[in-house]
Design goal:
The chain is an alpha+beta fold. The protein folds into two domains: 4-103, Jelly Rolls, CATH 2.60.120.10; 108-183, no CATH class. The protein has four helices and eleven strands. The chain has helices at 108-120, 132-141, 151-166, 169-183; strands at 4-8, 13-19, 29-35, 45-46, 51-58, 60-65, 68-73, 77-80, 86-89, 96-103, 147-148. The strands form three sheets. Strands 1-2-3-10-5-8 form a six-stranded antiparallel beta sheet, covered by helices on one side. Strands 7-6-9 form a three-stranded antiparallel beta sheet, with no helix packed on it. The protein starts with a strand and ends with a helix.
């Protein structure tokens, strides 16, 4: 697969798909990752069925893992087991560059295509999160890949997902996935 790069204007993240589910028969999703100074991902979350490895190439990434902050500097890596809540941010004045690996791949590429697509199309808030109905459909569609750490948000999403689906937000998810597959 040709490398594909996405930029999230709300979170200050740039990601480049290096190895996808298609490339690895579902075993691995790997991406290059750049985070702007003083930026953060959209929300604390877990991957219920995937382990994640973050390898920092330059800068220092702060990862909150199960409520504890860990600073990961250049040349270091951290393993986040399946089901463990985590959040990444760049507290410094310099850009962070890292590699992220997810095993198995599941639908990580499709998740990023959708979330960053919405962000680029103005369908997220300033933190990079979509509104409640879109978020509910996102969590429903990718429930085996990613889950919010907020039990309240997960409960609300389960209740609102059917409404979001009826309103067409599932078609939006499928549109971003289809559009991405045509660009590859």
């Amino acid at each position: 697969m040709a490398k594909r790069t996405l930029r999230n204007p709300k979170t200050g993240e740039t990601i480049t798909f290096l190895k996808t589910s298609r490339d690895t028969n579902g075993e691995l999703f790997q991406m290059g990752y750049t985070m702007s100074p003083h930026a953060a991902i959209a929300d604390e979350h877990s991957h219920p069925h995937q382990e994640m490895i973050i390898k920092v190439l330059s800068g220092t990434l702060t990862c909150t893992i199960d409520g504890r902050d860990e600073k990961i500097g250049a040349g270091k890596e951290i393993l986040i087991p399946a089901g463990v809540n985590h959040f990444q941010r760049n507290d410094s004045d310099v850009e962070v560059q890292a590699l992220e690996e997810y095993r198995p791949a599941l639908q990580m590429q499709e998740f990023f295509e959708t979330l960053i697509g919405w962000s680029n199309d103005g369908k997220t808030n300033e933190a990079g999160l979509p509104g409640l109905l879109r978020l509910a459909v996102l969590q429903y569609y990718f429930k085996h890949t990613i889950r919010s750490s907020s039990k309240k948000r997960n409960l609300i999403s389960r209740m609102l997902a059917p409404i979001g689906i009826v309103l067409g937000y599932r078609r939006e998810v499928e549109h971003y996935i289809r559009s991405a597959s045509l660009e590859q």
